[in-house]
Design brief:
The chain is mostly helical. Helix 5 runs antiparallel to helix 7. It has 2 domains: 96 residues; 108 residues. 64% of the residues lie in helices and 0% in strands. The relative contact order is 0.11. The two termini are 26 Å apart.
């Protein structure tokens, strides 16, 4: 990845891009777009190069949504997707068929993770940072978002449960606080997504993803 200190090359921004490249749901969306695992990494590399040379990356309101949009555009131009496929919706692109036994295993693991989330609720809840003036409500938002991400994953769907829009809807007083600076809101969205990821990491063992 290029180091562009004059534009989108800040270490924080590059870390966000790296996290998106490694995100399983983003990888799946890329796979659906190009239909070839060999091209997924090429697509991610192209998208990251596009974003690292962008001026004022801090103005991107939802980096995840923006990344997916650029990815769709690049896939459209570089890999000539089927003309009948609407590029506005990456989930509309059919994924290669998954073996039945893998589908069963994925489903079973998803249900196990959901059960684990529920069983450890008290401990997990207490571990969520109290970032707002109403810690209980903030923790509820993060907990529900993590659960929805797991639930959506049962069908292999990319989840929007940790998107800016989802957070705004669930807790507008905090995520769209009147008078709050744009950068402040951006940081709140970013930290909330990190809190969701941390919660998921506490539920899903790394070895279970292999």
């Amino acid at each position: 990845m290029e180091n562009t200190s004059s534009s989108g090359g800040s270490s924080d921004f590059q870390q966000e891009l790296l996290a998106l490249r490694k995100d399983p749901q983003v990888k799946r969306s890329a796979w659906r777009l190009v239909g070839d695992l060999r091209l997924v990494e090429d697509l991610h590399q192209t998208v990251c190069l596009r974003l690292t040379v962008r001026k004022h990356p801090e103005q991107i309101e939802d980096i995840r949504r923006y990344y997916l949009r650029v990815m769709r555009n690049e896939a459209s131009g570089l890999y000539a997707l089927r003309s009948e496929t609407p590029f506005e919706d990456p989930d509309s692109v059919p994924a290669p068929a998954q073996p039945v036994e893998d589908q069963v295993c994925d489903s079973m693991r998803g249900h196990i993770w959901l059960q684990r989330l529920a069983a450890r609720r008290e401990t997990l809840w207490a571990g969520i940072p109290a970032r707002s003036e109403d810690p209980r409500r903030y923790r509820a938002v993060i907990y529900r978002s993590a659960g929805q991400v797991l639930f959506d994953g049962l069908n292999g769907d990319a989840s929007d449960a940790d998107s800016n829009d989802a957070f705004r809807t669930a807790y507008p007083e905090y995520f769209t606080q009147p008078g709050a600076a744009v950068n402040t809101c951006h940081q709140r969205f970013r930290r909330a997504r990190e809190d969701v990821k941390a919660l998921l990491r506490a539920v899903v063992d790394r070895d279970e993803l292999t």
